Each structure stands twice: as C-alpha cells, then as structure tokens.
Write a sequence for this structure.
C-alpha cells in the first residue's frame, strides 16, 4: 500500500493540499443538495447562498476552536498554528455547532423557523462528511488501534481501505510504518449510508426538524462507537472523560427519547404535536405572484375546497368524512332552496289570480243589479 502525497498540486509555489480540496468539495456538494431541497420546498432561490455565508465561516471557526481548546497547551506554544487549518485539526462536532449557530442567526434575520432551514441542509451535511473524511487519509490522521498482521488476521484487516499504513516519525524522520484501523473510511461509509437514509425519508417526515434530529441521532451513534476505537493521540479528553464520545452518547439518547415520547403523545392525542410542519407561501416566485396567491388563500373556501387541499385535517380535530358529507349535501341543499322559492312564487301567483276572479265576480253582480 503506497502512502498518499498530502499535496495535490502547487500554484505559484503555493502547495494545494488534498485535505483542503476534499473539504471544499464536500461543502459544494452539500450546497447543491440543499439547493435541490430548497427548490422542492419552494424557498427563495438565494436561500442556500445566504445560509452558506453564515454557516460555513462559523462552522470552520467552530470546528477549529473545538479542536484547539482541547489541545490548548500545544497551540499556546505556537499560536500561529491555530490558523493553519490545512494541516488538519478540525473537529466535526464543533463544526456542526458553529454551522447551526450560523443558520440560527440567519433564521432570526429572516424571521422564519430555524428547523425549516436545518432540514434542507441535513442530507447534504452527511454527504459532505462522507467526502471530507478522505482528507484524513491524505493527512494520515483519524486512524484506530494498531493491527499486528499474523497468519490468523482476517483478510479485511490486512487490506486497504479497511486498514491504513501510517508513518512512524521520530525527530522529524520516518523510522518505520505501522498498520492501523482506517476509522476515516468507516466513518465515510457510515455518513454515506446516513445520507441515503435521510434522502429517502425527506418527503415523508411530518415535522420540521425531523431530518436534522435523525441525522444527529444516527451520526451520534456511529461516532460514539468509532471514538472507542481511536488512538489516544486523536481523542479529546477532559480528565478521564472522552469528550466527543460523551457528547455523541448524550445527543443520541436525547433525540431517541424525544422521538419516543412524542410518538406516544401523538398516538394518545390523535394529533400532530411540536414541531408541527408549517406551510409557507411559494418564495421562489416574484413578489407580485406571491401577493396574488396570498390574496387567493385568504378567500373563504367551501367545504369541497377544503377537502381538495393537501392538509392534515386531523391536526384541527376535523374529520374529512364529515366535510365530504357536507360537500356532497351542498347541491341537494341548493336544489331544496330553489324548489321552495319556486313554490312560494306559485302560491303568490295563485293568490293573485284568485283575488282577480273575486273582483270580476263583484263587478258582474253590480252590473246585474
């Protein structure tokens, strides 16, 4: 197995690293996926670009700060290294927290629900991680325990990409090599599966925020397991506690507990509870068309029109069958009203003719006298 070269190419004497290329590729792919989702949800065309302007910078800052804080002594000795992110040292949990902060700020500015925006970026986020993790391969980082190759070692643990060859450096010189578990590969595959799961369920969710919460639970579970296989060199510790592993465990348990409790309450109440899905106007159309659509939506609708709408009537405690019966009875009610009016007109006409005949009789009697 040949060791990779960290440098992809050079421009004007400046090295461009594979780590940076893969990180940028992941971000671009995530933005494209988010744009597809934003279009499907009829959001404004500039929504994803605006989100990226907030989420990407804060995500990178968060990822770096999370890593630096747990390696503080190392970076205080040479502070300039804090800025050298191309050397590695970006912690995904910090990146996610920073990115979520950026999206939250944007949602407050736009006065829209925060969870609505997080759902459009959740699938792309998982796919971006699947791509970006290969940057760790080129940097020779994020690997697991060392594997001693023997005749009884399973085939998978003797071949790339299940295991990876890592240089052993002493005093700046390569003195040998060792074989380690390729955790970056395991996580890349897991994130790809998470992306496929989120992408397949995105049209079936009933609540805003379900996708990002599902991502948090699935990724938290995978990362919790992989953290137990990492070399101590890449474990962020606080005393004897593995910080990232503990954070992932708590996140997974919290999300699953929330899902279970909400499911039980919804079955008991028979309605959709927090966070309910909110229907917004089509932001992708010009202002004039949006105002016209809003005016149409504000008109009084008949029961038949309500049935035609794609709305979860159970949320309002209304049975669709009742509304359908009312809609079917409308024509019959109209016919009854018309029949009654015709009957009244006939009676008035008959009364008028009767009165006319009486007057003629009186005049005839007077003339005979």
């Amino acid at each position: 197995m040949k060791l990779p070269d960290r440098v992809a190419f050079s421009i004007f004497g400046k090295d461009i690293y594979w780590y940076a290329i893969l990180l940028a590729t992941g971000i671009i792919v995530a933005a494209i996926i988010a744009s597809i989702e934003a279009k499907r949800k009829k959001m404004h065309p500039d929504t994803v670009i605006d989100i990226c302007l907030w989420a990407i910078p804060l995500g990178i800052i968060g990822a770096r700060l999370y890593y630096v804080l747990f390696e503080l002594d190392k970076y205080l000795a040479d502070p300039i290294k804090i800025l050298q992110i191309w050397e590695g040292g970006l912690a995904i949990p910090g990146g996610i927290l920073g990115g979520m902060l950026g999206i939250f700020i944007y949602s407050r500015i736009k006065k829209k629900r925060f969870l609505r925006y997080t759902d459009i970026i959740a699938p792309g986020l998982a796919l971006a991680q699947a791509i970006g993790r290969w940057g760790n391969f080129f940097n020779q980082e994020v690997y697991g325990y060392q594997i001693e190759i023997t005749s009884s070692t399973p085939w998978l643990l003797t071949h790339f990409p299940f295991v990876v060859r890592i240089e052993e450096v002493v005093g700046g010189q390569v003195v040998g090599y060792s074989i380690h578990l390729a955790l970056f590969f395991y996580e890349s595959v897991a994130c790809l599966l998470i992306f496929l799961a989120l992408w397949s369920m995105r049209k079936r969710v009933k609540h805003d925020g379900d996708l990002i919460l599902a991502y948090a639970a699935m990724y938290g579970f995978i990362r919790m397991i992989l953290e137990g296989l990492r070399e101590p060199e890449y474990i962020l510790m606080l005393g004897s506690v593995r910080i990232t592993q503990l954070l992932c465990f708590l996140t997974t348990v919290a999300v699953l507990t929330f899902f279970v409790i909400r499911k039980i309450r919804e079955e008991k109440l028979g309605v959709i509870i927090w966070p309910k899905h909110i229907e917004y106007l089509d932001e992708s159309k010009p202002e004039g068309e949006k105002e016209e659509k809003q005016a149409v939506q504000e008109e009084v609708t008949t029961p038949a029109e309500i049935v035609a709408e794609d709305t979860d009537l159970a949320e309002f405690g209304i049975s669709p069958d009742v509304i359908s019966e009312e809609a079917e009875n409308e024509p019959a009610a109209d016919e009854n009203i018309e029949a009654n009016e015709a009957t009244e007109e006939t009676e008035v006409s008959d009364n008028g003719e009767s009165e006319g005949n009486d007057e003629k009789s009186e005049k005839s009697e007077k003339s005979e006298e």
Remarks:
- Residues 294-320 have pLDDT under 50 and may be disordered.
- Strands lie at 7-11, 14-17, 163-170, 173-181, 237-238, 241-242.
